[in-house]
């Protein structure tokens, strides 16, 4: 596609449920990042993929969070047993290589009620 | 640990003014620095990327400079317009190599008054 695509754009879930957020990077981009942006806060790094491997997953806040990337393309961020503090906008970005310009998707707004 | 600071957090200027947005970072061992724009409720739009070997980049009314040794970057906006109103974020990549994350500042929210 022309840009980074994220789905869904909005997700409302009940506390305790699991959610999956999807990111389709720009075709051919090997690097993929996940970030979280809470209301009034800066961008919080979650995980970085190069191809299908994740050399930096230091930002995942707890073991309830996991992410995978298959075929060097689509990535899924999974949050298990969601909590209210997980409510945020989850942003995905991709770049052609590790040192090249990063492009962001429009984000998934997650609300845990 | 890399830290990126953007001060002030908010700025209001009259239309037509030239302005400078500042960004500072603590670890000068960076691969590149990128400036983004974020409109309310939207994702980030890339404005300019400066590689560590470069001093500046220009795109239209925007000019970004990088002084790696002093840990500073500036985004210069010429002849500001109400449509420039948005939050501007800078991010640096590096410290541990090409596989390192982008570290963001908290952004500067710019309001350009007609």
What is the compact description of this entry?
The complex is a heterodimer of chains A (113) and B (114). By secondary structure, chain A is mostly beta strands. Helix content of chain A is 0%, strand content 51%.
Description:
- The complex is a heterodimer of chains A (113) and B (114).
- Chain A is mainly beta.
- In chain A, 0% of the residues lie in helices and 51% in strands.
- Chain A has no helices and eleven strands.
- In chain A, the strands form two sheets. In chain A, strands 2, 4, 5, 6, 9, 10 and 11 form a seven-stranded mixed beta sheet that branches.
- In chain A, strand 4 and strand 5 form a beta hairpin.
- Chain A starts with a strand and ends with a strand.
- Chain B is mainly beta.
- In chain B, strands 2, 4, 5, 9, 10 and 11 form a six-stranded mixed beta sheet that branches.
- In chain B, strand 7 and strand 8 form a beta hairpin.
- The model of chain B has no long low-confidence stretch (mean pLDDT 93).
- Chain A binds chain B through residues 4, 33, 35, 41-43, 45, 48, 50, 55-56, 58-59, 91, 93, 97-107, and chain B through 31-32, 34, 36, 42-46, 49, 51, 89, 91, 93, 96-107.
What proportion of the residues of chain A is helical, as a percent range?
under 10%
How many strands, which pairing sense, and closed or not: the largest β-sheet of chain A? 7 strands, mixed
Low-confidence stretches of chain A: none
Task: Please give the alpha-carbon distance between the first and last residues of chain A.
Answer: 33 Å
- Please count the helical segments of chain B: 0
Label the structural class of chain A.
Answer: mainly beta
Largest sheet of chain B: 6 strands, mixed
Principal-axes geometry of chain A comes out as: globular
What's the total count of β strands of chain B? 11
User: Terminal Cα separation of chain B, in Å?
Assistant: 41 Å
Percent of residues in helices of chain B comes to under 10%
Output the number of helix runs of chain A.
0
How much is the average pLDDT of chain B? 93
Strand residue content of chain B = over 45%
Radius of gyration of chain A: 13 Å
Average residue-wise pLDDT of chain A: 93
Reading the helices and strands of chain B in chain order gives EEEEEEEEEEE
């Amino acid at each position: 596609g022309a840009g980074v695509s994220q789905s869904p754009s909005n997700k409302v879930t009940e506390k305790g449920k699991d959610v999956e957020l999807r990111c389709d990077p720009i075709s051919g981009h090997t690097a993929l990042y996940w970030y979280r942006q809470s209301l009034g806060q800066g961008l919080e790094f979650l995980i970085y993929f190069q191809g299908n491997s994740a050399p930096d997953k230091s930002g995942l806040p707890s073991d309830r969070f996991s992410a995978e990337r298959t075929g060097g393309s689509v990535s899924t961020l999974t949050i298990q047993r969601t909590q209210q503090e997980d409510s945020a906008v989850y942003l995905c970005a991709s770049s052609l290589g590790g040192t090249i310009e990063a492009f962001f998707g429009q984000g998934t707004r997650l609300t845990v009620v | 640990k890399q830290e990126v600071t953007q001060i002030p957090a908010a700025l209001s200027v009259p239309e037509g003014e030239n302005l400078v947005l500042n960004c500072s970072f603590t670890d000068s061992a960076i691969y590149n620095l990128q400036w983004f724009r974020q409109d309310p409720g939207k994702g980030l739009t890339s404005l300019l990327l400066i590689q560590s070997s470069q001093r500046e980049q220009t795109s239209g009314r925007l000019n970004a400079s990088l002084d790696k040794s002093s840990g500073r970057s500036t985004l210069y906006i010429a002849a500001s317009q109400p449509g420039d109103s948005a939050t501007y974020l800078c991010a640096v990549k590096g410290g541990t190599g090409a596989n390192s994350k982008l570290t963001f500042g908290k952004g500067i929210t710019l309001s350009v008054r007609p």
